[in-house]
Amino acid sequence: MAVDVGASSGRLILGKRNDTGTLDIEEVHRFANRSVMRGSRQCWDLDRILEEILVGMRKCAHRGIVPVSVGIDAWGVDFVLLDAEGRVIGDSVSYRDTRTQFAPADVHSCVSESVLYARTGIQQQSINTIYQLWTVREQLDKADAILMVPDYLHYLLTGVMANEYTEASTTGLLNVTTRTWDRELLDDLGYPQHPFTALRMPGDKLGNLKPQIADRVGFQCLVVLPATHDTSSAVVAAPLKDDSIYVSSGTWSLLGVENTVPITSEASRLRNLTNEGGAQGRYCFLKNIAGLWMVQETRRELGSTHSFGDLNLLAEDEPDFVSTVDVTDPRFLSPVSMTEAIRQACMETGQRVPDTPGKLVRCILQSLAKSYSQTIEELVEVTGRSFGGVCIVGGGSKNGLLNRLTAEESGLDMTVGPAEATALGNVALQMIADGAVEDIEAARTLIASSSL
After folding, report:
1. Would you call 144 a catalytic residue per the annotation?
2. Sign (positive/negative) of CA torsion 167, 217, 1, 159?
3. Quick one: pLDDT at residue 451?
4. What is the pLDDT of residue 294?
5. Which of 42, 247, 312, 402 could form a disulfide with 94 if both were Cys (CB 3.0 to 4.6 A apart)?
6. What SS3 state is found at 416?
7. Using an 8 Å Cβ cutoff, are 227 and 278 in contact?
8. Could you tell me which residues are beta bridge partners of residue 223?
9. Residues 208 and 297 reside in one and the same domain
10. What beta strand segments (E) does 263-371 contain?
């Protein structure tokens, strides 16, 4: 069972090999997710997320289904601090909160951007854990453990505290070469050492469900670590070739290539490319791009009177509207009004201002496609490689207009799907741990040969 928790929704998906040897998946539960305000902070309601996970597991028990194992993946950079008794310290604040606005400058006064990138290989974003922790240094001094979001959810299921490597790589605190916490960097920043425990790798068997959890869901099973960073799990399921670029398309768009060694050159740093940890010794060399969050927020502001399909049809009807915005602009991270932020950006650049839902969505999708194409050019420059195709996976792969615009902007061949790549990669890594699948290459072959 893959528990795939995204920043806007979560789902529990069962995967199994059928009689023909191919893979079947089944969604057993889906739930909405959104940050909530606690005082002046945007926070995650992790207790509610746990309850939704347990609801999905109980649905399996009611059908007489007992999974061999379960594993959780989620978004990166956000964390929970725990004291020596395992109690939460402070709030689980969302990366979209504004608290890190000035933290990068403070951190870089201790460690320069160039040195930081050379050691960690992680792109500079104000949302990164390294900057979030700067804002809660007093709490960190009192903490006995720091658990990233999927680590914390695994802890609630098993009682075992563990930091999984791929998720930890998003913190900006790992040494990109040794794949361990950069202890010298922690000292340079004045962060205590002891909350940063030894890392566990995808495929590690964490343990069984706690007895009280097993009683609540109606069965006992093993908990296995997937690549708990959702991007890393999605890349496992992507049907990649040696000359393939992937786009994991959802709330965020993660566009990149799979490498076996990190790239930490100055050219890479200046283009803000990142080396996130992948499964089985690989690196996800990519750029974080705003993604369909901009459409989600636009739809919310419009009162959700239009479905996403409706908005795409309206955008299809606006082929002559060609205004675009820079989707990497921080103004689109968490604006008071996404529609106004888009209109203001168009106005500042002397372009036509979108004044209808169709024009707004057309502007967003054209902007994403343009950003994809620009990032592909950067990857070519930095890696020295040529690429023959783009593989778009994740929920955003269902957006036909975005796919077409991306193909037109990039001039590359397009492969689409699977839509549930993250859950499939999660399931695949559990199967590898179980011995049912040999390795990632075998998993990709299995997924590609299945009707998913």
Report:
1. no
2. positive
3. 79
4. 96
5. 42
6. strand
7. yes
8. 70, 207
9. no
10. 274-277, 283-289
Query: Cβ(33)–Cβ(5) under 8 Å?
Result: yes
- Number of residues that this document lists for the chain: 452
User: How far apart are the C-alpha atoms of 407 and 404, rounded to whole Å?
Assistant: 5
> Which member of 230, 317, 320, 434 is catalytic?
230
* C-alpha separations of 207 from 84, 142, 334 in Å: 21, 27, 38
**What is the enclosing helix (H) or strand (E) of 297?**
helix 293-301
Domain, as residue range, for 291: 240-416
421 vs 11: CA distance, rounded Å: 12
Both tokens of residue 279?
């499964």
Counting the structural domains of the chain, the total is 2
Q: Are 8 and 251 in contact (CB under 8 A)?
A: yes
CB 28 within 8 A of CB 14: yes
Tell me if the pTM is above 0.90.
Answer: yes
pLDDT digits (tens, 9 = 90+) for 425-443: 999 999 999 999 999 999 9
Considering the domain architecture, whether residues 6 and 152 belong to the same structural domain is answered as yes
Same domain, 73 and 212: yes
Domain assignment of residue 400, yes or no: yes
pLDDT in tens, 329-345: 989 988 999 999 999 99
418: preceding bond cis by omega (within 30 degrees): yes
**How far apart, in whole angstroms, are the C-alpha atoms of residue 57 and residue 63?**
10
